[in-house]
């Protein structure tokens, strides 16, 4: 789960990582109140789960609280890379002396955690990394023996810092690492980490991703799900992964690879997926019933392809759920189910007697072709 | 011959008394797998499908000289179950559970490496060597004994590829699922080395996905391999920045971990990449 900037900053603040003064708002009037609390000198930032919002015009400076409602109104009506703006973060304007980059990521190849640090942070960090790689410092951390505070100081010193500021920056690095380890973060990035002219240091932005699979052992200060898509929220409750996409073919698969493979094959015949839904290994009758219903809630869906393998999954039970869901849908889109593996015959029998088209070839293309035929027939 | 799971394998099942563990144990036994015991803490002394159940891995290893394990424990307990198996000296560990926290996998991976143990998964269908047995959840009816090695990041897609190979008359030596999570215990390239050395295997199919650089790393070794390799990579139409499932399938930045970057690396190494699963068979035919 990727957090929005303000959510990440709430997490930072609760864990000893200083952030600018500010408030999250959802309306023009709230923006005025928030700006007033900051003495009118403020910056308004759209809260979207993608980068590049500054370049897209999603960050505005104001000099008085009176400007806030109009500017906020405009920002709240924006759409950035397909995400409509629901919330703004209103923060104190800062007198910046220096922008630094500090980040922690998982190196998925080696299984190490990597701390990245650059004295030249800010919007163009990627350019810095490419053109001046000697300005980006990397500390490889063995997850089984993370470094103590004193080992981080010489690492940060490489950026040319000393004395009080070095101590302050090391504290940020240490607190971020502790947060990363204690809360199972996948990404923890501060860019820019801002040194103000008055000597204070604050996290100017936050980029945080938490591991959904580790939520069972944490109590977070932040309500992550608050701002996520309704269907994606519902999917989480059902226990499946759902990603909304732009096309009109619903996709349900019993594995991530098979789901993506199915999407790729749809594209081959000029169709586009309305979603990606992966059940994982938890198929039950109820789960398939709810998943089928969920996918069809998207009004754009005009065809549905379900691709299942019975290895760990009882596809014969899933079939019952599919039949029940399709019967309740009025109108139901054309549906093709391809299902193979353990108890495949029982699964096919349930589907066929429920009036559902079954493809028993191992070729997913065959299922896609069949769906195209069904959709053409229905149009006539 | 086959790789990793061979005639010498003596395996235990961790989580043998659970709902999934017990069903899968039955199917592994029916498939002919040499399972010697099961482990569930607190259930020692019981029996599951004729297998004696022990309270810990140490006792099962001591009494049955077990050298492999397959796990069906809940995700929150997977880390400790794997670490116990490593500590008990087991050298082949198949971690089936999905939804294991990434930070847990980091620790499992490091410990497995330190002890020279093979860790497949988590989130793996396991390993099957048709004619010998299977440690995992793949449907046995989708596989036939033969000469093709398969390495896969995706369980379901590997079943599809195996099914297509069967139709064309190509059986499999072993199918190894490395796991679909962002971080997994074993790199693809290590499995590739085993297939290169295995006399039964005549060609290898890599079933990849977007995300990470495992396929790119494998490409480096393919350059010096004597056996033909064919690839297929899913996720061409996945949007950047969205995690496709609980899987490691995510294109983090434009141009990295994409189907294109992986296909380019593999093709340059002499391993053609199929656009769709059915093309895998055609590409193999040309090379065998």
CATH homologous superfamily identity of the largest domain in chain B: Succinyl-CoA synthetase domains
In total, the number of strands of chain B is 14
Give the CA-based shape of chain A. Answer: elongated
The number of helical segments of chain B is 9
CATH fold-level topology of the largest domain in chain A: Rossmann fold
Gap between N and C termini of chain B: 19 Å
Question: In what range is the share of β-strand residues of chain B?
Answer: 15-25%
Structure description:
The complex is a heterodimer of chains A (380) and B (288). Chain A folds into three domains: 21-92, ATP-grasp fold, A domain (Dna Ligase, domain 1), CATH 3.30.1490.20; 96-224, ATP-grasp fold, B domain (D-amino Acid Aminotransferase, Chain A, domain 1); 230-379, 3-Layer(aba) Sandwich (Rossmann fold), CATH 3.40.50.261. Chain A contains twelve helices and 18 strands. Chain A has helices spanning 5-14, 28-37, 68-76, 125-131, 149-157, 163-182, 230-238, 256-268, 285-297, 315-328, 344-353, 364-379; strands at residues 22-25, 42-46, 59-62, 79-80, 83-84, 88-92, 96-107, 112-118, 137-141, 185-196, 201-203, 207-210, 241-244, 249-253, 275-278, 303-310, 335-341, 357-359. In chain A, the strands form four sheets. In chain A, strands 7, 8, 9, 10, 11 and 12 form a six-stranded antiparallel beta sheet that branches. A six-stranded mixed beta sheet of chain A has the order 13-15-14-16-17-18, sandwiched between helices. A four-stranded antiparallel beta sheet of chain A has the order 1-6-2-3, with helices on one face. In chain A, helix 5 packs across helix 6, helix 7 (230-238) runs antiparallel to helix 9 (285-297) and helix 9 (285-297) packs across helix 10 (315-328). The two termini of chain A are 43 Å apart. The mean pLDDT of chain A is 93. In chain B, helix 6 runs parallel beside helix 7 (214-222) and helix 7 (214-222) runs parallel beside helix 8 (259-268). The mean pLDDT of chain B is 93. Chain B is built from nine helices and 14 strands. Chain B is α/β, with parallel strands linked by helices and 288 residues long. In chain B, helix 1 (19-30) links the parallel strand 1 and strand 2. Chain B has two domains: 11-120, Rossmann fold (3-Layer(aba) Sandwich); 138-287, 3-Layer(aba) Sandwich (Rossmann fold), CATH 3.40.50. At the A-B interface, helix 8 and strand 16 of A face helix 1, helix 4 and helix 5 of B.
């Amino acid at each position: 789960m990727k957090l929005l900037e303000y959510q990440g900053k709430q997490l930072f603040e609760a864990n000893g990582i200083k952030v600018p003064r500010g408030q999250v708002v959802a309306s023009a009037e709230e923006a005025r109140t928030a700006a007033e609390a900051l003495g009118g000198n403020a910056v308004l930032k759209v809260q979207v789960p993608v980068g590049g919002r500054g370049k897209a015009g999603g960050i505005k400076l104001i000099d008085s609280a009176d400007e806030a409602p109009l500017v906020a109104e405009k920002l709240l009506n924006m759409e950035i890379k397909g995400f409509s703006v629901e919330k703004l973060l209103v923060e104190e304007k800062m007198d910046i002396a220096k922008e630094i980059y500090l980040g922690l990521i998982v190196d998925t190849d080696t299984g190490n955690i990597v701390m990245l640090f650059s004295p030249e942070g800010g919007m163009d960090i990627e350019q810095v990394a490419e053109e001046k790689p000697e300005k980006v410092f990397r500390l490889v951390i063995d997850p089984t023996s993370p470094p103590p505070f004193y080992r981080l100081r010489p690492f940060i010193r490489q950026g040319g810092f000393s004395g009080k500021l070095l101590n302050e920056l090391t504290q940020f690095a240490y607190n971020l690492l502790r947060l990363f380890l204690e809360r199972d973060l996948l990404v923890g990035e501060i860019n820019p980490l801002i040194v103000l002219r008055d000597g204070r240091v604050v996290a100017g932005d936050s980029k945080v991703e938490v591991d959904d699979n580790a939520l069972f052992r944490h109590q977070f200060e932040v309500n992550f799900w608050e701002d996520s898509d309704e269907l994606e929220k519902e999917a989480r409750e059902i226990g499946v992964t759902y990603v909304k996409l732009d096309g009109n073919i619903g996709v349900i698969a019993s594995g991530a690879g098979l789901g993506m493979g199915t999407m790729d094959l749809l594209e081959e015949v000029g169709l586009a997926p309305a979603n990606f839904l992966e059940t994982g290994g938890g198929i039950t009758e109820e789960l398939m019933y709810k998943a089928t219903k969920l996918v069809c809630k998207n009004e754009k869906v005009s065809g549905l392809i379900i691709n299942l393998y019975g290895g760990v999954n009882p596809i014969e039970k899933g079939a019952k759920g599919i039949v029940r869901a399709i019967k309740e849908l009025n109108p139901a889109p054309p549906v093709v189910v391809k299902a193979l593996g353990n108890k495949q015959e029982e699964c096919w029998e349930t589907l066929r007697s429920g009036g559902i088209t079954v493809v028993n070839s191992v070729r997913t293309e065959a299922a896609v072709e069949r769906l195209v035929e069904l959709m053409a027939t229905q149009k006539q | 011959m086959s790789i990793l799971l061979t005639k010498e394998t003596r395996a235990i099942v961790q989580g043998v008394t659970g709902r999934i563990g017990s069903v899968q144990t039955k199917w592994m036994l029916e498939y002919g797998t040499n399972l010697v015991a099961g482990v569930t803490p607190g259930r020692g002394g019981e029996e599951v499908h004729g297998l004696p159940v022990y309270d810990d891995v140490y006792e099962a290893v001591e009494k049955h000289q077990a050298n492999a394990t397959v796990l069906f424990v809940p995700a929150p307990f997977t880390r400790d179950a794997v670490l116990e198996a490593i500590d008990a000296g087991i050298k082949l560990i198949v971690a089936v559970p999905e939804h294991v926290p990434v930070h847990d996998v980091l620790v499992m991976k490091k410990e497995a490496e330190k002890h020279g143990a093979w860790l497949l998964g988590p989130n793996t269908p396991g390993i099957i060597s048709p004619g010998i047995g299977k440690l995992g959840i793949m449907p046995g009816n989708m596989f036939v004994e033969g000469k093709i090695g398969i390495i896969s990041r995706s369980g379901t897609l590997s079943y599809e590829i195996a099914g297509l190979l069967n139709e064309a008359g190509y059986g499999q030596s072993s199918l190894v699922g490395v796991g679909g999570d962002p971080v997994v215990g074993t790199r693809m390239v290590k499995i590739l080395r085993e297939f290169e050395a295995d006399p039964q295997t005549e060609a290898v199919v890599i079933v990849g996905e977007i995300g990470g650089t495992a396929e790119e790393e494998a490409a480096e070794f393919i350059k010096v391999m004597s056996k033909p390799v064919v690839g297929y990579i899913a996720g061409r139409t996945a949007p950047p920045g969205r995690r496709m499932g609980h899987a490691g399938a995510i294109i983090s930045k434009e141009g990295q971990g994409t189907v294109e970057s992986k296909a380019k690396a593999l093709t340059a190494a002499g391993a053609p990449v199929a656009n769709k699963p059915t093309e895998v068979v055609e590409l193999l035919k040309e090379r065998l």
